[in-house]
Amino acid sequence: MIKMRRVLSIFRKEIYHIVRDPFTLIMALVMPVIMVLMFGSAVEFNVQNVATTYIDESKTPSSLTFLNLLGSSKYFQLTSTDNIFSGYKRMEREQAKALIIIPPTFEYDVLGNNTGHIQILLDGTDNTAIGAIGGYIGFVQAKACSEICKITEHSTVKLVPKFLFNPELNSQWFIVPGLAAVVMAILSILLTALTISREWERGSMELLLSTPVRPLEIVVGKIMPYAILGLVSVIVVYIVARTFYSVPFVGSHLVFFCGTILFLFAYLGLGLLVSTVVRNQQAAVQIAMAVGLMPSMLFSGFIFALEHMPFVFKCIATIFPARWYVTIARDQFLKGSSLQDLWLPFTALSISAYFIVQLCVAKFKRTLEQ
Amino acid sequence: MRNIVEVQNLCVKFGDFFAVKDVSFAVTYGEIFGFLGANGAGKTTTIRVICGLTHATSGEVIIAGEHFIKGKEDIIKANVGYMSQRFTLYNDLTIKENLDFAATTHNVSRKDLQRNKSDLFDLIQFNKKESSLVSELPSGIKQQVALVAALIHQPKLVVLDEPTAGVSPVSRAYFWELIRKLTKMNKTVFVTTHYMDEAENCDRIALMRSGELIAIGTVPELKNNTFSTQMYNITPKKPLINDDAESISRLCLLFEPYGIHYHVVLKHDADITSLEDKCYVEKVNPSLEDVFIKLVEGDR
């Protein structure tokens, strides 16, 4: 039978440790802010101002119109170069990501045959940038047809794409909600693993177990403060996301909170598991970072889209709670789906949280009773 | 006399290794029971079983009349106060916070806590502020407060695992004074120590070697049983070279360095004259250290 008085006593002791330990406080309160600011500012999927060099061998009104169209968009930053060799050199020196070559016969070909060719050389070492450049070029090409050849579209089928939930494809809106998963994953695993391995390391766990306190009371009393810290860190991420990056929150706070609680339990359980494997703080930090940080970054869809992963990795990703929590967090910030719509991530998250907590409590109990 | 601890045929096995092998002993109410042995002798494992931290592979442990079986851990743990050598108190907590925590984990009510604390503070003549952080306390005071924490739930048995390790000689002496006072408060003290001068304070002593109990008794009993013949303290007239040491050791049953002297037990008393040629010789009573060396380390 679990005794609340003993649980609260352990809880209170942990609070004293946290309040008097600057490292834990910094981890819980400052790290989320730094991570949100860092990721929010550094990660940008919308490539802009791509350094582009060009050789205009045509020097005709048509080529000028094309170049004006390119230059007037925010996506390209144009500089001219004399010949193909100097242009190639610029790409080698990372001074340009693309080299545009307009041949001398461009205007003649366009106006005479309606088949003007422009060569575009792209820097294949930077996949992200060239993928975006390819998309923008297509857009400019359509405009060029309209302005140079005066071709107006009379097609009966007209595709007009509109982006729902994130109309401007704002990278921060995409990244920052997922950060809550990364921050909580690191914090919950690290702090839980640390607090228990610390007790082992200094021998106080032995003293604690010589009292009538039950292993489950230790687990609950120790986890509670860190669950609260985890929630505080999510609130910090939420506030920074809303104020610094103006990320909208269109969903239900209750749904988001429920997902967060499930995710927290899963990762606090993983922290416990780490603490049963290692009994010194240094090793606990290393394992916690490997178990907490890596999957939440790579297999959660936080940065890399899961849809494009090989089937095996997609399957692996499903066992990580972060994969489901990122879906819930991103959805609640940007889409606002209901609990029914989110039944799959919630069910998966509940199952994984349940099994992880069960496994960890059982393993923790066995370890203590050895 | 009633026993507070009864250990019967205790065996603790880790894999194929016997940490404790068929150990039986009893501790009576109100005595100071010393538990001695070299590192790895099985002392800590036996203590861990008595404190409910390790399960016995076989055998029985009875504490204050209760068998150590599943479901009765709480009753037994309520009768045992444990002070470990590795950890005493949380350094980043105040004295009050540490004691409150120790009391709550033992289910001591708020009212009892105040009364017990006040009694125990009187015992150790404590005059520091309860709001002081433990990290600010000298090691001697810290040990005393740790003793209070181990006693806060008024256990009948106090298990002290090397309680004076790393404490100054003055604090050690004072701590043993406290241990003697505890027995006057009807507490039984089960203590391990590496300091043989301290162990002489025990009413009875058990000696462990390689997981087995090799001797048990009062200090005089152990000395008499171990050394039936006279022990001499010899001081070489000039530094002993190898050959001298070898020729002396051939005459002895025991030849152990003891500071700048040697403690020896001769095979034949008649050999005393040949010893007197090379050394100053005086009769001495064996110390507990001699007993320990003879029994625990003698066969190594």
Q: Give the integer mean of the pLDDT values of chain B.
A: 87
CATH-derived topology of the largest domain in chain B: Rossmann fold
Please give the alpha-carbon distance between the first and last residues of chain A: 21 Å
Name the CATH homologous superfamily of the largest domain in chain B: P-loop containing nucleotide triphosphate hydrolases
What is the strand tally of chain B? 14
User: Quick one: overall form of chain A?
Assistant: elongated
Q: Span between N and C termini of chain B?
A: 37 Å
Query: Helix and strand string of chain B, N-terminal first?
Result: EEEHEEHEHHHEHEHEEHEHEEHEH
Which structural class best describes the helix and strand composition of chain B?
Answer: alpha/beta
Largest interface: A-B, 24 and 26 residues
Q: Based on helices, strands and strand pairing, what is the structural class of chain A? A: mainly alpha
Residue share in β-strands of chain A: 5-15%
| Individual helix count of chain A | 14
Order of secondary-structure elements of chain A: HHEHEHEHEHHHHHHHHH
Overall 3D form of chain B: globular
Q: So, CATH architecture of the largest domain in chain B? A: 3-Layer(aba) Sandwich
Total discrete domains of chain A: 2
Determine the fraction of residues in helical runs of chain B and give it as a percent range. Answer: 25-40%
Mean pLDDT of chain A: 83
Task: Describe this structure in a few short sentences.
The complex is a heterodimer of chains A (about 375) and B (about 300). By secondary structure, chain A is mainly α.
